[in-house]
Each structure stands twice: as structure tokens, then as C-alpha cells.
Amino acid sequence: MVSVRINGKTVGMHSAPETPLLWALRCELEPKLTGTKFGCGIGVCGACTVLIDNIPFQACQIPICALDKAEVVTIEGLDTPEARALKKAWIECDVVQCGYCQSAQLVAATALLYCHRHPADCDIDEAMKGIACRCGTFPRIRKAIHQAAQSLHP
Ligand code: FES
Ligand code: FES
């Protein structure tokens, strides 16, 4: 059994050690953490982004055996001042369209605000570039990140 810290709890997983974290989150855990999305499964789309020790990673690319002593945070456990400010701004800026990529966008934006109090547009574009949004919500994502940063650090 592989033990992994997820959203502040240690959970034992019976999957094979090389199982990608994404499948363990979505299929093994009870309750299933389906907020982390499967897009491509090959490290291209970014829909499966989670935080590992506060850094965004693609959950489809990391086997659970590589997570010993790591802290994994998924959209379900994202509840810091930065995350709350972003969720509020996301609603106020009406960011979401179909919603499929948005868990990953919020996870990546939260990690960005951990490092930058007032990220510039170029910082935002760099931080978010690995997560595809077929609905084209990037202009609203950018606006919401600026708004959240301003609310945290007026
Ligand atoms: S599902 Fe992981 S990068 Fe696309
Ligand atoms: S909101 Fe539809 S893919 Fe991003």
C-alpha cells in the first residue's frame, strides 16, 4: 500500500505504485476527488493540475509512489486566503464558461499568488500557459487574478 497526503489527510492507496495520481484521485479514493479533470492523460492539456508542496503539477504524469512525504492539494482542498480570494474574483468576473479546465486554472492561480503578491500580466501568462482553455477564458482569468491580488494586498 502507498500512503499519500491529500488535502491534509494521509490516505492509503491499494493501486500499483506506478499508478498516476490522477487515476488514484478520481477512481480509488472514497469519496472520489473528481474535481481534478482528465483531459489528455499525456501531460499536454493541464486539466489535471494539482498542487504538490504548493507547486502546480500534472497529476496524470506523477506516479503515487513518487509522493512520499509530499503534500497534495486538489481543488476540493484548496482553501487558503489566496484560493478564497480567487474563487470570489472568479465569480465576480464571471470567468467560467464550460468549466472543464477551471479546477486546474484555480489551482495554478493559487500557486501564482503564493509567489507573487501582484503578478504582472506576463507572470500570469507564464503561470497559466500550461493549462488549455478551449472556451477562451484567459482574458477573464487574467482580470480575476488581478482582482484577487488587489483584494488580498490593497
Ligand atoms: S490530463 Fe494531465 S495534462 Fe492532460
Ligand atoms: S472554461 Fe471551458 S475549457 Fe476552459
TrEMBL record:
One family from Pfam that matches here is Fer2_2
Domain of life per record: Bacteria
Q: Which InterPro entries match?
A: 2Fe-2S-bd (IPR002888), 2Fe-2S-bd_dom_sf (IPR036884), 2Fe-2S_ferredoxin-like_sf (IPR036010), 2Fe-2S_ferredoxin-type (IPR001041), 2Fe2S_fd_BS (IPR006058), Beta-grasp_dom_sf (IPR012675), Diverse_Oxidoreductases (IPR051452)
Could you tell me the keywords of this UniProt record?
Answer: 2Fe-2S, Iron, Iron-sulfur, Metal-binding, Oxidoreductase
Which residue intervals define the domain 2Fe-2S ferredoxin-type in the entry?
A: 1-78
UniProt name for this protein: (2Fe-2S)-binding protein
